[in-house]
Amino acid sequence: MKIPLLYIPGTKIRKVLHFQKKYTYGRPIIPLGSDCHPAYTLQKLNLRESSLPFDWLNTESIRGLLFVRQNVEDKFEHFMTNMKANEFGHLVSEKYPYSEFIHEKNIDHNAGDRDRFKRRITRFLRFLEEDVSFLYNVTGASFTTDKVVDFFYGSVVDFLHVMKKNDKLHIYIRYNEDCTENESQCNRLIEKIGNLDQVVIARYLRSLSQYGTWGNESKYLALYDELGIRLKQTFPRIYIK
Fold this sequence. Notes:
Structural class: alpha/beta
Largest sheet: 4 strands, parallel
Strand order of the largest sheet: 3-8-9-10
Distance between the termini: 13 Å
Mean pLDDT: 95
Helix content: 25-40%
Strand content: 15-25%
């Protein structure tokens, strides 16, 4: 909800009082990628209270959980080592050429940018000491063959090895225009993951042509509900802008 407070005709001066719904959850929700969408959904629901290392990276969809697991296991030793620009002009580390720092142009040499990510890494590792819910999205377009399904499923099983017994992994398959894309493979993945106690999987249609990159933001709450993340509405975020 928006309430106009001040407007001076003929100038750019205008002030609006904003009321945004805010939610709470009983544990931290940690976005893991594979791209910016999970972090963005948390931000729009006013659940994102800190910056973490995987928030705004762009990682090959089926390799994202492998990427996270390896970084957790080696304490992010290779996360920012021997960086170079890929064919798209985005920086990647030597060990993980499939994960792009799409919003970081100087992280290969700028000490301030690197220190900022080191703080995010420290924060992330501290979160792992608590019971957490991990949030990950994978594209439906990725699952072109059963072999790809098996590879991703294997990465999910392997990721369980870095989770504590009370942690949860919430995965949503993101479709652009049609939830029947690669339908048989996606159904197979959902069936296999359904046998894992600590993992919940759901489908999400963002309707790219109508709503753009972030999808219909009014559907985020329903997505979280389908993922088994039951949010409670709390005091709204109020600000003037």
